[in-house]
Amino acid sequence: MTHTPIYLDNASTTWPKPPEVADAMADFIRTGCASPGRGGYRMAVRSAEYVSRLRSHLSRMMNAPATERVVITPGATDSTTMAIMGLFAHLPKPTKPMRVVSTVLEHNAVRRPLYLLDQMGIIEWVQVPCDNDGLMRTEDVLAHVNESTVLVSMMMASNGVGTLLPALEVCRALKDTRPEVLTLVDASQTMGVIPIDVQADNIDMLLFPGHKALMGPTGIGVLYLSERATGETPVSTGLRVEPTRLGGTGGDSGKDSMPTKMPARYEVGTHNTVACVGLLAAIEADGYPKGHDALAHERAMCKRIIDHLTDHPKVRIVGTHDVSNRVGVVAISAEDWAPGDLAAALDAEAGICVRSGFLCAPGAHKALDTFATGGTVRMSPGVYTTDAEIDVLLKTLDTLITR
To answer: What angle do CA 87, 38, 256 make, to 5 degrees?
Structure first.
């Protein structure tokens, strides 16, 4: 039997997209998708204008001090690698490893570069634990920052369980207590629903994708780099982000070395201009909830799930039950069900699309005691999720779990 999809995997990628996204991308492909910054003819100039408009929107969203501080990347994982490996991979092994503080909840996009650098002896990777609700306090993080700390890297919200972390509070505190420490914030689950001000929040590096709450297509991400991060205003540790991807930039083509200007120093090769056009259309579109309204709707859907399952004898809700401390994510484990099997059964029974397993966050599952059982089933409503769809989800879960 074929079911109309009930899409509850918005923490991976939001869907459906506003209709303006596909329309704009298709129109761009049909009417001339020349490479931006690679020619002076009108079609190429038009492509460059799309990229410029997008960069301006993104800059305003985060209150960047200048639009050129905003680097457009192939995705948030690429942004993460550029930031972390750009800071450390070019350095010789130090006599004493430099401390990097992150959390047990981080995504593998952050964990794996830090693990590699720790294994190489370049950094000492310290992971701040969470409590049984998947939460932590600002002071818990700051307690791990010492005189050898050079970077604090935190996500704003856990992709695995949805809990909010005090990343912005930590960054602001470091401005006064440890001004030499660089700050990296992963806003993959929050950009577009929680306000961010890179200047007021003391953020040196901010990364996020275009395909989640911003409602754009896949294949595009963002990395903000402050003047401290690029070494234009040096920090006392001497660290700066060096380019990790080298090649053509459309300018300074007569030189063998990479350009020094932002953002060209970090934007190599042809932009995914089709994705840029799609993200621009999503940002400029009206007719769907954004920002606080989007988060409020998703939290309301999550509250229905949590309230229904809280007293279920065979279900554990992982993380805090307080939706005010969550983004739009609920993760569960169910007695007698492997996460992958339950996710497959939800799809087979009612066309319900959810994510299962470790969710690229093994540290979270080890910390919250779901690693040995194969992770969790994650449900993440979106701005288009309806009460009727949640009704079907809850009814189907009741039927499956009580079998």
So the answer is: 50
Report helix, strand or coil for 225.
strand
Residue type, 330: V
- Torsions phi, psi of 108, nearest 5? -60, -25
Ramachandran angles phi, psi of 184, nearest 5°: -125, 125
Cα separation, 251 vs 295, in Å, equals: 41
C-beta of residue 266 within 8 angstroms of C-beta of residue 82 = yes
Taking residues 303-318, report their average pLDDT.
Answer: 97
Tokens standing for residue 70: 């905003």
Tally of CA atoms within 13 A in the half-sphere of 378 that contains its CB? 28
Fold designation for 6-17+289-401: Aspartate Aminotransferase, domain 1 (3.90.1150)
Domain ranges for the chain: 6-17+289-401, 19-284
Express each pLDDT in 101-159 by its tens digit: 999 999 999 999 999 999 999 999 999 999 999 999 999 999 999 999 999 999 999 99
Start-to-end Cα distance in the chain: 20
Residue 323: how many CB atoms within 10 A of its CB?
Answer: 22
Comparing CA positions, the residue from 142, 129, 97 lying closest to residue 116 is: 97
Q: Which pTM was predicted? A: 0.96
- Assigned CATH topology for domain 19-284: Aspartate Aminotransferase; domain 2 (3.40.640)
Amino acid letter, 93 = K
- pLDDT digits 0-9 by tens, 356-374: 999 999 999 999 999 999 9
Best CA proximity match to 209, nearest among 81, 74, 16: 74
- ω before 179 within 30° of 0 (cis)? no
d(CA 305, CA 106) in angstroms, rounded, equals 24
- The answer to whether 46 and 34 are in contact (CB under 8 A) is yes
Q: What is the mean pLDDT of residues 339-357?
A: 98
DSSP state of 32: -
Tens of pLDDT, residues 268-280: 988 999 999 999 9
69-92 pLDDT per residue, tens: 999 999 999 999 999 999 999 999
Give the model's confidence band at 1: pLDDT under 50 very low, under 70 low, under 90 confident, else very high: low
Evaluate whether 6-17+289-401 and 19-284 have a shared fold.
no
